[in-house]
Amino acid sequence: MNSVVAGITYRAVLGRRRVLLLILLPLVLIGLAVVLRLVGSTDERATVTLMQVYAIGTMLPLLGLIAGTGTISPEIDDGTIIHLLSKPISRPVIAVTKFAVAASLLALFAAVPTFVAGYLLLRDESGIAAGFALGALIGGIAYSAVFLLLGVITRHAVTVGIIYAVVWESLVGGLVPGARNFSIQQWAQTFAGQLTSTDFFKPTVTMGFAVPAVLIVTIGAVLWAGNRLRSLSLTGDE
């Protein structure tokens, strides 16, 4: 990991208008938790539904898309990536650094608000707050790698990412039993289930599958992104 590249990337991502979405999406989650508490809907069923449908099912992939593509796609699109590639820095190191930045942003804007929302509703009851925060953290790491890779291999990363998040993650991965094993969203819920004891939440993917799946996808996507960067010439053409 390169600290100079990390600093430049943080400033670039947080300095663009996309940071407003990074802030807005978790604020909506916390706002929904506050509303549910005010109207007295602080039971486990309502909290689990909020965590599954919004925190993990909607907010997390969207934040992953914003952070993952935002660390590199704009630089490729406007050509400024060439200045970075011209420096004596290993391309895989650049990819790892971009991934680390995206993953840290997901930890801050996804995992922390998920815990806060769960704690507002149930405090420490049934481990729901901590469980879904863990799920958001692990899922965010995987999403960061996948969307970083999309940002490197296609100039239509946002469009492809939205299609992936909506069609595969939400529809196919959420509704087709066999496809759930290949959904980051489902892997995140599996990790959440390790700390959650409520009767209203039962993950459908086993830890024996989710753990190696997260490792393979995350490491594979980052390595692929680093190798792909090697194919970018200093003129900006592949």
Automatic annotation (TrEMBL):
<keyword id="KW-1133">Transmembrane helix</keyword>
<feature type="transmembrane region" description="Helical">
    <location>
        <begin position="51"/>
        <end position="72"/>
    </location>
</feature>
<dbReference type="Pfam" id="PF12730">
    <property type="entry name" value="ABC2_membrane_4"/>
</dbReference>
<feature type="transmembrane region" description="Helical">
    <location>
        <begin position="93"/>
        <end position="122"/>
    </location>
</feature>
<protein>
    <submittedName>
        <fullName>ABC transporter permease</fullName>
    </submittedName>
</protein>
<keyword id="KW-0472">Membrane</keyword>
<feature type="transmembrane region" description="Helical">
    <location>
        <begin position="128"/>
        <end position="150"/>
    </location>
</feature>
<feature type="transmembrane region" description="Helical">
    <location>
        <begin position="19"/>
        <end position="39"/>
    </location>
</feature>
<keyword id="KW-0812">Transmembrane</keyword>
<feature type="transmembrane region" description="Helical">
    <location>
        <begin position="205"/>
        <end position="225"/>
    </location>
</feature>
<feature type="transmembrane region" description="Helical">
    <location>
        <begin position="157"/>
        <end position="176"/>
    </location>
</feature>
